[in-house]
Design brief:
mainly alpha; 14 helices
């Protein structure tokens, strides 16, 4: 049974993360207001570990680390702003699919900027994922130009997620998870609230139902989902945990089909299949040939 716990944790994490788009769609608030509340609540969830350790980890942070995490927090806030807007403007399946393409973007930037070597499998996966994105976006342009706007927002959110993960890759090797999450989430919330005030969106006198949804967004996908993923990472190979990202668009799409009756069109089916196959190729290590 103990050997199965990490896999069970990953299964629960996938369901928890897949509920994120469903909670967003249920909310009647503007995307910026919903995203700002989610990140504010998520920041509060990481306060207990900080108080327990008397902020020992935060006191060890250098100014450079704090500045870097501030920038990463701004990227995360921008990602959530675009993602929440995408879920409101296009189908749940397409929004989540394009927003989870960041392994492809991270691999591309790593190859071009950082000089990392890409296997042929990863190169083919990137090409396949790009073709799937073009098919998805092009199909929308022919069938329903209205959803093209939402899918473009989702694509931008995926690019921002890639920048967020690239920026945090080195910091997470030296900064504890709770300290990192608290600072990054706090700056993401600050960025989103600044956008709320700048846009003049209504954020006062919200219903109890809205606050419940904001709390669920922070508790279920953020705390439960990502925490279980991080826990499973200590027992399973990294690529196994990474590949579970592919289940999020499928899970969110099935939930949207059951709850909202969203039927995927041919661009989502064909383009989505190509994107998922491409991400799989990029995120999994190539098979070694026998000697």
């Amino acid at each position: 049974m103990k050997e199965r716990l990490p896999h069970l944790a990953l299964g629960v994490a996938v369901v928890a993360i897949s509920l994120s788009a469903i909670f967003i769609r249920w909310s009647d608030s503007s995307p910026l207001v919903a995203a700002a509340h989610r990140q504010a609540f998520a920041t509060l969830l990481f306060l207990p570990p900080l108080l327990w350790n008397r902020a020992a980890g935060l006191r060890r942070l250098t100014r450079r680390e704090l500045a870097s995490m501030a920038v990463i927090g701004l990227l995360l806030g921008a990602h959530f702003g675009f993602f929440f807007a995408a879920v409101k403007a296009t189908s749940v399946a397409a929004a989540v699919l394009l927003a989870t393409c960041h392994p492809v973007f991270v691999a591309a930037v790593g190859a071009v900027v950082l000089g990392e070597t890409l296997s042929r499998q990863a190169q083919r996966g990137m090409a396949l994922a790009l073709a799937g994105m073009l098919l998805l976006l092009g199909g929308d342009l022919l069938q329903d130009p209205g959803t093209l706007h939402g899918n473009a927002l989702a694509l931008v959110s995926g690019l921002l997620a890639g920048a967020y993960y690239l920026g945090g890759r080195s910091l997470r090797q030296t900064v504890g998870l709770a300290d990192y999450a608290l600072v990054v989430y706090a700056f993401s919330a600050l960025a989103l609230w600044s956008a709320v005030f700048a846009a003049g969106d209504a954020w006062q006198s919200l219903s109890q139902r809205e606050y419940l949804l904001f709390g669920l967004m922070a508790l279920v996908p953020t705390l439960l989902g990502h925490t279980l993923q991080n826990w499973a990472l200590g027992y399973l190979p990294a690529f196994v945990v990474t590949v579970t990202l592919l289940a999020e668009p499928v899970g969110s799409g099935l939930l949207a089909l059951a709850i909202f009756g969203e039927q995927p069109g041919w661009p989502e089916l064909l383009g989505g299949a190509a994107v998922l196959a491409g991400i799989w190729a990029v995120a999994t290590p190539p098979k070694l040939s026998a000697v």
